[in-house]
């Protein structure tokens, strides 16, 4: 019995799973700071007595596209865009330190500086809190100052500094929550004074909508081809059974 149907099935299965990753990229084409997921296929030889031409298909995810997205001016004081390489440190839902490029920040009711996803923003000394009702300003170096209502500009007080890091891309891994973390066994990244931000702007998604649409169509065609191979293999088996039944 030819194992063609199984090799084609492995290709169809991995193609279908990759389509989900492509769809996720498409869904986040407008998400601030989003990094596109990279996908690839590799051939895995079948171990055994079968023909050496038979291989299974395995999908791999080499990581994320670390290229920067476009900078979008907003004029909002709590919006920041990281210039060049670098990350903003936040506290994830499980309490661990994580990294993001999402820069549309806000102040919670208790004065804590958080992301739009309700995650606390970390500074050099932990979570950052600002006086309620104060006007918040973020400098290029991540320094945060607060000015009380009616106070002169000279009374602006420093309330913290954003923890901006720049670990090697190979040291980062993306979690299911979309945040990046250091690889297991590695310590948290140290603050990098060379990382700077632009206030009044956010970074857009680095997903190319045209390219991801082309990938989606090509993937659908690839899946269709694999299904045709499966259909052909099934047809061959049926004809072989008919011939054997006649003998």
Automatic annotation (TrEMBL):
Segments traversing the membrane: none
Keyword DNA repair: no
Annotated Flagellar hook protein FlgE/F/G-like D1 domain residues: 81-146
Flagellar basal body rod protein N-terminal domain location: 5-35
Domain Flagellar basal-body/hook protein C-terminal intervals: 199-243
UniProt-listed GO biological process terms: bacterial-type flagellum-dependent swarming motility
Keywords, alphabetical: Bacterial flagellum, Cell projection, Cilium, Flagellum
InterPro entries documented for this protein: Flag_bb_rod_N (IPR001444), Flagellar_basal_body_rod_CS (IPR019776), Flagellar_FlgE/F/G (IPR020013), Flg_bb/hook_C_dom (IPR010930), FlgE/F/G-like (IPR037925), LlgE_F_G-like_D1 (IPR053967)
Chief place of localization: other
Subcellular location per the Swiss-Prot or TrEMBL entry: Bacterial flagellum basal body
GO cellular component assignments: bacterial-type flagellum basal body, rod
Superkingdom assignment: Bacteria
Cited Pfam families: Flg_bb_rod (PF00460), Flg_bbr_C (PF06429), LlgE_F_G_D1 (PF22692)
Quaternary structure (record): The basal body constitutes a major portion of the flagellar organelle and consists of five rings (E,L,P,S, and M) mounted on a central rod. The rod consists of about 26 subunits of FlgG in the distal portion, and FlgB, FlgC and FlgF are thought to build up the proximal portion of the rod with about 6 subunits each.
Similarity comment: family membership: Belongs to the flagella basal body rod proteins family.
Protein name (record): Flagellar basal-body rod protein FlgF
Record organism: Glaciimonas soli
């Amino acid at each position: 019995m030819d194992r063609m149907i199984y090799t084609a099935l492995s290709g169809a299965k991995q193609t279908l799973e990759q389509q989900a990753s492509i769809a996720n990229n498409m869904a986040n084409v407008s998400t601030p700071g989003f990094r596109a997921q990279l996908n690839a296929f590799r051939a895995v030889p079948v171990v055994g007595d079968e023909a050496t031409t038979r291989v299974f298909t395995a999908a791999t995810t080499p990581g994320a596209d670390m290229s920067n997205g476009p900078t979008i001016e907003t004029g909002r004081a709590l919006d920041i865009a990281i210039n060049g390489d670098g990350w903003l440190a936040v506290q994830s839902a499980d309490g661990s330190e994580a990294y993001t490029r999402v820069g549309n920040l806000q102040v919670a009711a208790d004065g804590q500086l958080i992301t739009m996803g309700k995650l606390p923003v970390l500074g050099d000394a932990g979570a950052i809190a600002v006086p309620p009702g104060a006007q918040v300003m973020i400098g290029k170096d991540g320094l945060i100052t607060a000015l009380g209502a009616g106070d002169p500009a000279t009374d602006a007080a420093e309330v913290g500094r954003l923890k901006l890091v720049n670990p090697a891309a190979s040291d980062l891994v993306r979690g299911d929550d979309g945040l990046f973390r250091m690889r297991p066994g590695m310590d948290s990244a140290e603050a990098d004074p060379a990382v700077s931000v632009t206030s009044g702007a956010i970074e857009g998604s680095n997903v190319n909508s045209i390219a991801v649409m082309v990938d989606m169509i090509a993937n659908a065609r690839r899946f269709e081809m694999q299904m045709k191979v499966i259909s052909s293999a099934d047809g061959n088996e049926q004809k072989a059974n008919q011939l054997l039944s006649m003998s």
